UniProtKB/TrEMBL annotation:
Keyword list, A-Z: Lipoprotein, Signal
Species whose genome carries this gene: Bacillus amyloliquefaciens (strain ATCC 23350 / DSM 7 / BCRC 11601 / CCUG 28519 / NBRC 15535 / NRRL B-14393 / F)
Lineage per the UniProt record: Bacteria, Bacillati, Bacillota, Bacilli, Bacillales
Leader sequence residues: 1-23
The name this protein goes by in its record: Lipoprotein
Length: 100
């Protein structure tokens, strides 16, 4: 009976951790800071930002989602992000032009 409970706990823990946003790869990637234009929130975990004239989809960590959802569309921003090996951009910081 103990081994069945242990297996269930192990599976449950692995299931919980599989949804975490942390990756060691993201920590080792270099950060980039650029000025751009916040276009809009694209769902709960992604925003669209125009950087160097191109629209980019940027993954937003849970802790920054409310901040991004409350930004007005077409706001001038300074964005700091990391680029993962799969090409996905991951937000680190986002500042409105008026806050800089």
């Amino acid at each position: 009976m103990k081994s069945v409970i242990s297996v269930i706990l192990l599976i449950f823990t692995a299931w919980l951790l599989s949804g975490c946003e942390y990756t060691a790869e993201a920590d080792s990637a270099p950060s980039f800071t650029q000025e751009g234009t916040f276009i809009k929130a694209s769902g709960n975990d992604t925003i669209a930002v125009k950087i160097d004239g191109e629209r980019q989809e940027v993954k937003v960590p849970f802790s920054k989602r409310f901040e991004c959802q409350s930004l007005p569309e077409h706001t001038a921003v300074q964005i700091t992000y990391k680029k993962e090996s799969n090409g996905q951009l991951r937000l680190e910081k986002l500042k409105r032009e008026t806050d800089m």
